[in-house]
Amino acid sequence: MPPHRSKSEKNDGMAKQLRRDPYEVLEVSRNSTDQEIKSAYRKMALKYHPDKNGNDPVAADMFKEVTFSYNILSDPDKRHQYDTAGFEAVEAENQELELDLSSLGAVNTMFAALFSKLGVPIKTTVSATVLEEALNGVVTKQPLLLGQPVSRKVEKQCAHFYSVEITEEEARDGFVCRVQSSDKSKFKLLYFDLEENGGLSLALQEDSAKTGKVTSAGMYFLGFPVYRLDQTVNSVAAAKDPDTAFFKKLDGFQPCEITELKPGTHFFAVYGDNFFKSVSYTIEAICTAPFIEEKENLRAVEAEILSKRVELSKFETEYREVLAQFTEMTTRYTKEMQEIDELLKQRNEIHASYTMIPPSKRSRNRSKGVSREAKEGEVRDRKHSTRDRTKKKRWYNIHLKIDKRKQPC
Description:
Elements: H1 7-17, H2 22-26, H3 34-48, H4 50-53, H5 57-73, H6 76-85, H7 106-117, H8 128-135, E1 141-143, E2 150-154, E3 159-166, H9 168-173, E4 175-181, E5 187-194, E6 200-207, E7 209-211, E8 214-221, E9 227-229, H10 235-240, H11 242-247, E10 253-255, E11 264-272, E12 279-287, H12 292-352, H13 359-393
Parallel strand pairs: 1-3
Antiparallel strand pairs: 2-12, 3-11, 4-8, 4-12, 5-6, 5-11, 7-8, 9-10
Pfam families: DnaJ
Domain J: 21-86
Protein name: J domain-containing protein
């Protein structure tokens, strides 16, 4: 007889059967590039975002489905797993969703801030309002000159847009855009593509990370593959197990979608990603012509990191095998120790059984011996106390001689 399934289990099973192909949801082909998948997701997420559709349940479901599909296809490993074995291989129940803080109420925002403070990783997305305004071309863009840092303050869930002019020579030499916050605020550095209608569509996004006494984020267009480290990848699973945290540390080390910029005007933005307060930041755009040694060092270090990522994968297998053996050995050690103690206890009991004295008398003799020792101890204590009292009395036990002749009549 098959086991009884609860109503929730039945609903979960039906939900799994009704899942649509992520490629179908995002309206992309199976050989689409990462950039094509990201662009499709941004447009559809903007279309079905709760901010634009009020309480429409259909739009809300579509938004969840679009986000869920993108979470699979945006991760190279999960995309490969899905292409190979479908939904079951990607462990869909562990997918992380991106939260739009601007769409949360005050209470939910407070809870999200609390969880973040406690170390629970919360992945956030750019406000739909900001993306829509950029797509409609109604944002104000401030010129950002190469080599001239700009310091400003952006409100939470708002963005400051910048335009940067790059010549052909500067594009060939390489270009870097960096932002840092001295008060360790959270922010996002955004890069936008220019659409035919003059609007801007989000193409790249870098979350700030703590680096020393500041939070910083940067985009590096150097003409060769540059890697980015997404620290939220597998962060939930890693938080449960320190070993997993170590072996998954480099899983988010993935190549950036764009390696170089063409000559012309390019658009960046700094998005305030704090829960409650504004973000003070400094942004600078740099041509990397003077940084020849730094570029070569970056290329070499990233190559070593990629090599380490491969080594970690192999080392994890060896480590898990040795750890299993160690666990087995420690379990056996505990078991052997218990068995030895039990055998020694039995041995002592057998030794004690070699006597003709009945057990009751043996116990009485033992009690008599104990009482005799106790009585002897009491006698010794009384003798000591008497001697002490005698010594204590000597100071006032003085014999006085009185001369009767000198006494008055």
